Amino acid sequence: MKLSIEIDDKVFFKKRIYNAIGTGEARLVSVKSTLIPEKRFHLQLDEIVLFIHTDFIEIKFDIPLDYFHLSELKSRNELLEIDLLKNFFGQLKSIGIDEVHFGIFSEFEKDEGFTYCWKNIYRIMSKYDNYFELEI
C-alpha cells in the first residue's frame, strides 16, 4: 500500500500517509472483536474511519450522509465534485483503493453461519435498488 507506519505503543499505531495530495496522519487501531472476528483494524483519518475487515473495508463518515442524495449526485456525475468526498477519495487512492460501493446493508438478512467477507456483503447489498458502485 506504499504507507509508512510509525508504532507509538502496542495497541495504537501512528500512521503517516505520503501521497500526491500531501501528507496526513492517521491512527491505526488493532481490533479483536468477538462479534465480528473478521474485523482487523480501525484506521482513523481526518473525518473518516475505515473498518478494515479480512477482505474489504467499511467506511464510516463522522458526518451524516444521505444515501439517496449521494445516489442523485452520482446520477448527475456530481459526486466527485464535493470537496469532502474528493479529498477522501484522494486518500483512498493513495492507499490503493480504486472503487467504492455505496448501499444500505441490511444487518437482519444474515444467513446461518454468516461471515463478514466481501462476497457475503456484496451479495446482500447488490440485490437491492439502493446500491451503486463508483470508480474513483
The radius of gyration over CA amounts to 16 Å
Encode the helix/strand succession as letters.
EEEEEEHHEHE
Multimerization status: single chain
The pLDDT mean sits at: 76
Beta-strand proportion:
35-45%
Compute the number of strand runs.
Answer: 8
Gross geometry: globular
Distance between the termini: 16 Å
Q: For the report, how would you describe the main beta sheet?
A: 6 strands, antiparallel
Q: Which structural class should the secondary elements be placed in?
A: alpha+beta
Q: Helical amount among residues, as a percent range?
A: 10-25%
Low-confidence stretches: 17-22
Summed up, the helix count is 3
The largest sheet has its strands arranged as 1-2-3-4-5-6
Q: How would you describe what is shown here?
A:
The structure is a single chain. By secondary structure, this protein is an alpha+beta fold. 21% of the residues lie in helices and 35% in strands. The strands form 2 sheets. It has a 6-stranded antiparallel beta sheet. It has a two-stranded antiparallel ribbon with strand order 7-8. The chain is globular and about 40 Å long.
